[in-house]
Design a protein that fits this description.
There is one protein chain. By secondary structure, the protein is of the alpha+beta class. The chain folds into 2 domains: 1-45; 50-155, Macroglobulin (MG2) domain (Immunoglobulin-like). Helices cover 22% and strands 42% of the residues. The chain is built from 1 helix and 9 strands. The chain has one helix at residues 7-41; strands at 50-59, 65-67, 72-73, 79-85, 92-100, 105-113, 120-126, 135-143, 146-155. The strands form 2 sheets. The protein has a 5-stranded mixed sheet, with no helix packed on it. A 4-stranded antiparallel sheet has the order 2-1-4-7, with no helix packed on it. The protein starts with 6 loop residues before the first helix and ends with a strand.
C-alpha cells in the first residue's frame, strides 16, 4: 500500500504546532516578566517622604492645622500635627506615636494614606481630658515600623 501524505494537511499540522509552541513560549515569558515586576514593586521601591510637620492648637474644616509660632502648649491644649508628605505618595499606613521625654507612649494612632501624585497631609493629635503634664513630648511618624519623621512639642504650666 502506497502511503500518500497530503502536503496541504501536513503544512497545516506543522503550522498549527509551531503556532501553539510560539504562543506557549510567549505566554510563559510574559508571566516571568510580570512576576519579576511584582517582586521588585513589593520591595518598597516607593518610599514615603515627610516634607514637614506643622503644629497647632486648632484645625480648619478642611483638616489643615492652624499653625503656631512656637512649639509650646499648655496642659489643656489639644496638640494637632499636620504631617506634610512630598509627592508622590504611595499607599501606606502611617502611625503617629506621641512619646513623653521618658519614652512612655502617651498616644498612638494609625492613619491610612491613599496613593497620590500630589503632596498629601495626614493629621495626628494629642490631648488628655485631665490635661497633659508639663514636659517635652515627641511625635514620631512611623511607616512600617520605621521612623520617617519627628517633631518635639513642649507643654508648659499656664
Amino acid at each position: 500500500m502506497p502511503s500518500s501524505i497530503d502536503p496541504k494537511r501536513s503544512f497545516l499540522t506543522v503550522s498549527f504546532l509551531l503556532l501553539t509552541a510560539f504562543v506557549l513560549l510567549s505566554c510563559s515569558r510574559k508571566q516571568e516578566s510580570a512576576s519579576t515586576t511584582n517582586e521588585s514593586g513589593t520591595t518598597g521601591a516607593a518610599k514615603i517622604h515627610v516634607d514637614q510637620i506643622v503644629l497647632g492648637r486648632e484645625m480648619t474644616a478642611d483638616r489643615r492645622v492652624i499653625t503656631v509660632d512656637k512649639a509650646t502648649f499648655t496642659p489643656g491644649d489639644t496638640v494637632f500635627a499636620a504631617v506634610n508628605l512630598a509627592a508622590p505618595t504611595p499607599a501606606v499606613q502611617l502611625v503617629g506615636r506621641w512619646k513623653a521625654s521618658d519614652g512612655t507612649v502617651v498616644d498612638e494612632t494609625t492613619e491610612v494614606v491613599l496613593p497620590s501624585d500630589q503632596p498629601t497631609a495626614v493629621t495626628f493629635h494629642m490631648v488628655k481630658p485631665a490635661g497633659l503634664p508639663p514636659g517635652t513630648y515627641t511625635l514620631e511618624v512611623l511607616d512600617n515600623g520605621q521612623v520617617v519623621g519627628t517633631k518635639e512639642v513642649t507643654i508648659v504650666a499656664p
